[in-house]
Write a structure and sequence with these properties.
- The protein has about 325 residues and is of the alpha/beta class.
- It has a single domain, classed as Bacterial extracellular solute-binding protein, family 7 (D-Maltodextrin-Binding Protein, domain 2).
- Helix 2 links the parallel strand 1 and strand 2.
- Helix 2 packs antiparallel against helix 11.
- The N and C termini lie far apart (about 85 Å).
């Protein structure tokens, strides 16, 4: 009797010991959504993240990448992240700022001449603070990707001076800072989903739009817009985010693997974005796009009130720190 009880006890202990191993070996499937088209650096880096994380976890964590707003537009994906309905998103600065207002600080006009200048801030203490604010709203900031320096296109006329903006109907994403910039320049802003932008431009719903060159090229906006103004009016990041609900379910080892894979994907995305900008302008010109380089000093002067508005807002303290660091000589 004692021998039987002892044997059963050993079997029970062995089974309990194997439980963590079984759980640890279980495959984890994650979703990563974004709004860009395949071929865009955002998509290429998302695929890199999925491949890297799968390798680091010996195939145990699989990430399904859904491009082209298959899981909804950026605003919808932010909501889904916060509720845990999706696991990850390479999203947009403006959409995330609706949940975490501090992201607006990086959208002040003519603040960064290059993405590298923005990353000096985002990779430091100010970026860490931004991550803390994101976590409070249910999202873990894994990296700040490059959504480029933004320029304007339109179908009406070349833009060389501020006066050329007057009365233009310009599409903007759901980003309050861009609405303010357009208002300061005398243009009318209208929010249209990026997935619907090409048709809206083709049908004349709006006269123009603004985006980094990589988005203008990848989405073939040059087919329906022949005037490109290199305004460089704003830098935007692409926040790589994970739902905090998903993050909290991961083991410490898996969290490290996720962050390492995110760091690799971030480096690749920034590199691809820079390489794309260096090549795309010449290609756009070859497709018949007429390019102007406006008087940036005049445009910056016309939009100076945007800084003042945001520094007086409820996130003014953070905006002031970002502006001071960005504009420090």
């Amino acid at each position: 009797m004692q021998r039987t009880t002892f044997t059963r006890t050993l079997i029970s202990l062995a089974a309990c010991a194997l439980l963590p191993l079984a759980a640890h070996a279980q495959t984890v499937k994650l979703t990563l959504g974004h709004g860009a088209a395949p071929g865009n650096p955002r998509h290429e880096a998302s695929v890199k993240f999925a491949e890297s994380l799968k390798a680091k976890t010996n195939g145990r964590i699989e990430v399904q990448v859904a491009p082209s707003a298959q899981l909804g537009d950026d605003a919808a994906m932010v909501t889904a992240l916060r509720t845990g309905a999706i696991d990850m998103s390479a999203n947009s600065q403006g959409a995330v700022a609706n949940a975490v207002p501090e992201f607006n600080a990086y959208g002040m006009p003519f603040m960064f001449s290059t993405p590298a200048a923005a990353f000096k801030l985002l990779d430091g203490p100010l970026g860490k603070e931004l991550g803390e604010r994101s976590a409070e709203k249910g999202m873990v900031l894994l990296g700040a990707w490059d959504n480029g320096i933004r320029h304007m296109t339109n179908s009406k006329r070349p833009i060389s001076k501020v006066e050329d903006m007057k009365g233009l109907k310009m599409r903007v994403p759901p980003d309050a800072t861009l609405v303010d910039i357009m208002k300061s320049l005398g243009a009318e802003s209208q929010q249209i989903r990026f997935a619907e932008l090409y048709v809206a431009l083709q049908q004349g719903v709006v006269d123009g739009q603004e985006n980094p060159l990589v988005n203008i090229h990848a989405s073939k906006i040059y087919e329906v817009q022949k005037h490109l103004a290199l305004t460089a009016h704003q830098f935007q990041m692409t926040p790589l985010l994970m739902s905090k609900r998903t993050w909290d379910k991961l083991s410490d080892a898996d969290k490290r693997a996720v962050q390492e894979a995110a760091n690799e994907a971030t480096a690749l995305q920034r590199k691809l974005s820079q390489e794309a900008d260096d090549k795309l302008l010449a290609d756009l010109k070859s497709k018949g796009v007429q390019v102007t380089t406006p008087d940036q000093a005049a445009f910056a002067k016309a939009t100076a009130d945007v800084d003042d508005k945001w520094m007086a807002s409820n996130i003014g303290a953070y905006v002031k720190k970002v502006v001071a660091a960005a504009r420090a000589k």
